[in-house]
Amino acid sequence: MDNRVSEPGTSPGGGPSAPRRNRRLLRRVLVTALSGGVVAGAVLAVWPGLRTGAASAPAPGPRAHGVQLGAPARAAQALTAVTSGMPAALPALTALIGQQEQRVRAQPQDARAWAVLGTAYVERGRATAAAADFPRAERALDASLQVLDEEKNLQALDGMTALSLARRDFPEAKRYAEQAQELAPKRWSSYARLIDAYTGLGDHDAVGTSLEQLMALKPDAAERPAVMAQAAAVYRDRGWREDAVAQLTDAAAAARTPAEQAAYLTRLGQLAFERGDLQDALRHYDAALRRDADQPAAPAGRARVLAALGRTTEAVTAYQAALARRPTPRDALDLGELYESLGMAPKAREQYDRVRELARRETSGGVDDALVLGQYEADHGDAQQAVERLQEEYDRQPGTEVADALGWALHRVGQDDDALEYATKATDGTQGGGVRSALFAYHRGAIEAALGLDGPARRSLEEALRISPAFSPLWAREARSALAALGDPPDVQVPG
């Protein structure tokens, strides 16, 4: 059965979407409209739904020193965050979008206003998992680039980089980020976005070079927490957990807004979960949500911790709440696997079907969901389709997570020699796979066991359970079973 998720004009492997392929047509429309002096309201009218940001009801705003911020103050706060590459609160983004939509209607030749509007759409789309914001972002950023071209338009380049990263289009992110870096070589956010793009492409040497350049800069006090958080992400990928935790702890302490602090606390929660420190993870997620109730990743992260603690009823409720607020295929897949681990097959299948539905929605907004779809198909759908999808993805952007997923999919179709090659890339620090992931180690151990490599398999499976004994409600159990099946290592007689 063909489980591919596709939309008309899109690649089932997460290739270029219709909005991206139609960029030239959109730009021709913009050239005609803007050069002819048409007001921005008319330009907005050619994009159905572009004005929904202004129409949506704003959520209660953040507080500063106990005082509720009004819409202008929230918009100003978001403007600072959006233009500097820092986290922004959702109500502030909503206020900024409404403000910038009014501005471009009044001043359609304002390239910066279009770029800020586009970037704000990106950030709102990320915060809410509303992929429909991404085509809106692209159109606004294209409008900015029609007024001021790429050789001078740093804000639009930043927006295009952020959009490409949100869509998991790392080659495009690299292209725009490198242009931005050339325009602003002393700016920290240029290197931060480059690092994210190089990470997605599996270019570990370029990540290291960019990090060195980033750390050589002298950011001001407001920028320093974001720089530390970016360094922490690289340290985590290298397996330097203590260094990553130290950087993020300092970043959270020095952050100047609740949204920024919540973002770093959430990452601390993710690190704690990955190393199996569940109480610490829960503490960080709860602290993040106290500071910013709209923090995107914290609710689902908290649900994962509850599942690992065996508080499964609470975990199911937490996942359902997280998906209601921010529906992503990744979280639907995790909830499906939790249901499966509990023997609730119909509920699990409902969530697995939802994975495909949500991926279809994201694909229509230009998001490359080949990775999560491949992971879903390998274990719960058509494994051969997973191999094809993930091989195409790896050929285009060979990041560590894709290498692990491709190796596992190959194992699921019985191609274990090839599978081990990719699993090794994902777990061997000499090949760039320095991240200490219990799931990756389990995958490698299962592949090694299938090849009859009992000693390496035993070491990999033990490593998985040592990193995090409850890394997955479904796969941690499988890791323990696989390790038990291998039995004790044989006695080795020492020569007398």
Overview of the molecule:
The protein has helices at residues 18-21, 23-35, 40-45, 52-55, 71-84, 90-106, 111-128, 133-147, 154-166, 170-183, 188-200, 204-216, 224-237, 241-254, 258-274, 278-291, 298-308, 312-325, 329-341, 345-364, 370-380, 383-396, 400-412, 416-427, 438-450, 454-467, 475-486; strands at residues 63-64, 67-68. A two-stranded antiparallel ribbon has the order 1-2. Among the domains are: 17-56 and 71-167, no CATH class; 310-368, Serine Threonine Protein Phosphatase 5, Tetratricopeptide repeat (Alpha Horseshoe). By secondary structure, it is mainly alpha-helical. α12 (204-216) packs antiparallel against α13 (224-237), α13 runs antiparallel to α14 and α17 (298-308) runs antiparallel to α18. It is 71% helix and 1% strand. It is globular and about 80 Å long.
